[in-house]
Task: inverse folding
């Protein structure tokens, strides 16, 4: 009876929460509808029992990649779905050369990106059109990359504002950042990168815990940001202001943050996991800055500059693949 109850509960969970098919080394979306759920399990069972004929494309039916579509694929798919339904670690602490930093889990979801109503007044033309974006889950750093972390990875500190190793690193170009994430990945065995512009804004807005603030974590800028009115003309140690809904700091101030996208006008309509154009002349940066007014610290604010730019306003925050 207990086993039967568990099976009923499991299938009820799958029906309620289909899981977006993500790169996992397995072919989990058997029927090709964009999600892994109970329909994929029942299709596999029918094939394994000989009640349904495989469609000839073995990659669709062979979940575990062993060359045969059979009951082992059903077991493999169920195990994957159970794993996907487990709550993710909300915070993951990583150590590199004696320096700790924390990555925050951002659960998949859909949001309206751009100059939504709470962003007014003070919006800029390039923040539109407002469009619907769906993102799969990812991790993003709880803080901007600090000077101590940059030095632990790269062996030098390029920053203008020194004196406290917990200040964000700045005066780094897009090329510098690319070298940093590559070396950080090599040192840790994980896959780091810069966040996409959409990932950055979704995290700044609080992800699926968003309270629809104008800024990242508040409508009161002094609560969450170092900006032109309170910074005294310099950066400050990270995480010394209030965090946003996801527990992420300084997305509305301290330093601007490079994103991986080439700059372009937003698309119209609905998009999934946008990464920007394939090429361009300038890269996007996001977030407020110690030298910016409040209107340039909002969640939707965006700007661009050439990838070789390195100044005391520009730093970075890393993302990590889910």
Result:
């Amino acid at each position: 009876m207990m086993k039967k109850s568990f099976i009923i509960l499991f299938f009820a969970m799958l029906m309620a929460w289909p899981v977006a098919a993500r790169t996992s080394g397995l072919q989990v979306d058997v029927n090709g509808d964009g999600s892994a759920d109970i329909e994929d399990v029942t299709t596999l069972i029918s094939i394994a029992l000989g009640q349904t004929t495989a469609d000839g494309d073995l990659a669709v039916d062979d979940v575990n990649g062993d060359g045969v579509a059979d009951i082992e694929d059903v077991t493999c798919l169920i195990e994957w779905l159970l794993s996907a339904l487990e709550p993710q670690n909300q915070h993951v602490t990583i150590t590199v050369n004696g320096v700790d930093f924390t990555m925050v889990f951002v659960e998949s979801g859909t949001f309206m990106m751009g100059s939504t109503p709470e962003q007014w007044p003070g919006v800029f033309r390039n923040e539109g059109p407002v469009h619907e974006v769906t993102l799969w889950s990812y991790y993003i750093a709880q803080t901007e990359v600090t000077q101590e972390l940059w030095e632990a990875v790269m062996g030098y500190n390029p920053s203008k504002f020194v004196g406290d190793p917990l200040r964000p690193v700045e005066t780094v170009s897009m090329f510098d950042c690319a070298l940093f994430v590559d070396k950080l990945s090599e040192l840790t065995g994980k896959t780091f990168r810069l966040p996409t512009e959409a990932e950055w804004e979704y995290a700044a807005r609080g992800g699926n815990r968003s309270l629809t603030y104008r800024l990242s974590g508040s409508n009161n800028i002094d609560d969450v940001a170092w900006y032109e009115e309170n910074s005294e003309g310099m950066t400050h140690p990270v995480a010394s202001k209030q965090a946003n809904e996801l527990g992420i700091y300084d997305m509305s101030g301290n330093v601007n943050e490079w994103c991986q996208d080439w700059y372009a006008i937003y698309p119209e309509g609905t998009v999934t996991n946008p990464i920007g154009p394939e090429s361009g002349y300038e890269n996007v940066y996001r977030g407020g800055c110690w030298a910016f007014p409040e209107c340039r610290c909002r969640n939707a604010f965006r700007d661009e500059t050439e990838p070789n730019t390195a100044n005391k306003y520009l730093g970075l925050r890393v993302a990590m693949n889910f």
